[in-house]
Amino acid sequence: MSINKNIRQLTKVRKEYSTSEILKGILSRDITFLSIAITLVESSRFDDKQKAHEIIDACLPYSGKSKRIGITGVPGVGKSTFIESFGQYLIKEKNKKVAVLAVDPSSNRNKGSILGDKTRMETLSNLEGAFIRPSPSMGSLGGVSKATRETIILCEAAGFDTILIETVGVGQSEVEVKSMVDFFLLLMLAGAGDELQGIKRGIMEMADLLVINKAEGENLKPARRARTEYKNALHLFPATTSGWIPKVETCSALEASNIDLVYNITLQYFNLIEKNGFFEKQRKGQALEWFRKALEHEIIQQFMQNESNKIRSKALEKLVIEGKRSPFSAVDELIKNAN
Amino acid sequence: MSINKNIRQLTKVRKEYSTSEILKGILSRDITFLSIAITLVESSRFDDKQKAHEIIDACLPYSGKSKRIGITGVPGVGKSTFIESFGQYLIKEKNKKVAVLAVDPSSNRNKGSILGDKTRMETLSNLEGAFIRPSPSMGSLGGVSKATRETIILCEAAGFDTILIETVGVGQSEVEVKSMVDFFLLLMLAGAGDELQGIKRGIMEMADLLVINKAEGENLKPARRARTEYKNALHLFPATTSGWIPKVETCSALEASNIDLVYNITLQYFNLIEKNGFFEKQRKGQALEWFRKALEHEIIQQFMQNESNKIRSKALEKLVIEGKRSPFSAVDELIKNAN
Question: What class of enzyme is it (chains A, B) (predicted)?
């Protein structure tokens, strides 16, 4: 098993397989068929979509049993190195099967922040038991996270028991990722001055675990100091709905130190939420939320795909911004004369 | 001018006035006509709505010049007392005209948390230059905040230069209020243990000013300690998009101490954002956001008002929660066969 380097080729051949062949391949844990199915999920073609939905619905009974872990942090914090270390630990020490996915809304792939530079996870990607899938390069954030969510189902059906979802800690993508994972890990750095520089407001509050990375050499002391500082800050926030009290730890992904500690914390967390029912509750809530959001998105799409609606909406937007129409009377007019 | 005690009576007579009569009344700063217009805005009747939209659109050129200030805090924090003190200061010392509105999504009015107990603002409500309007008791949060937003326009056209919008600091209503004000003030109390108890996550991050209320007598010391603690916590957050660094102060609404300080901070803030263009930018952004949200809301309403769509949606929701359908394939099916 290794990172799939032949997506284009798979795209060409995917039509040769029926949905039942692809399904059978996935359930027999064949990575090639998993990749074919993901490519279908990421496709914007109508017939591919239909096929993808059939496969996903058939995979559903075999899905849902993994631990879904979101990992975020600003570029430079060491996400790839952390996932490399953490993934290796899970596979080698804990006999897990690990899929690594990415949610990255940025169209500019040159930043290389997310799984772009595959070589950065070379050791992990060559391990038996690892599957690394770069972020789909298509479309809007909503589209990317829809594909990611469906990919989770496929990976679980293919036997992966741990799904790591990587995202950049600077935008809306965290909220999307939060809504598809069980556990949310925020990687940070100890730094002079404003410790949270670059991290969007609200991200810290979503974290179940803050890990100060690069706690090595001369940086060990500042990292420990940062840990205390964050612990105090987190203390000011009320308890999460999971009943879990967010933790702060240091680690060095480079030296693979404290990786076991991070793993043990995830264990504690999952033990807690499986016992108190939050695991089940959150999963159900997430599914319902995705259904409702996707439905609303589609309903609005249908409306806006109508050229006349679109043009009239744009014209009214302009009047609203200029203060010449109230938002609500503008909406009334638009809806009344909608196509 | 005083709090309007005759809404029911106004409802009866509102049909006797034409929109142009009501408009003329508002622009001549007649509170009776302002109240009639607000009652139209809060009405769910189709013809009232039409009339309200006409009036609001006609008021728009005369609106937008007030300072819109959101005030939130958990029940018991002293919101009413604070608004009473702050409002009196604004009117008596600064010669302002102050309208007090409320956004309160709770249907249970017995809590008396928001403007319910009118007597709590008796002094303010009897002042020339004050207008206090209780929260509309109808409908959903979205409906309440829509009415509040339109009421702001009406109050501004009627010559009010300061709009105070009160809300309870425990839910979604703060996000709504944040999207209709220029400045957001969070009232808090010094307390033992977890200082943020009861305040929803994320609310603190929205505040431009935190005020520790009840800094009086024996509570003075704990209040000052809390101020330091919050200052340190706020320091961890990155700068707001306004360029403003959120402040923390203590006050005693009861003894009317530090009320001038709070006022001076709002002045500093408005000076800054008028200079750096954020005032204009935020207002335009808010209008556009409201238009888009209201449009999306209406489009979805139209879809769900269809009985068959509604029934099928509920059935699919169930399958999604049970893990028998993927959210996205369920949506596809629903949209494909929509009415």
Answer: hydrolase
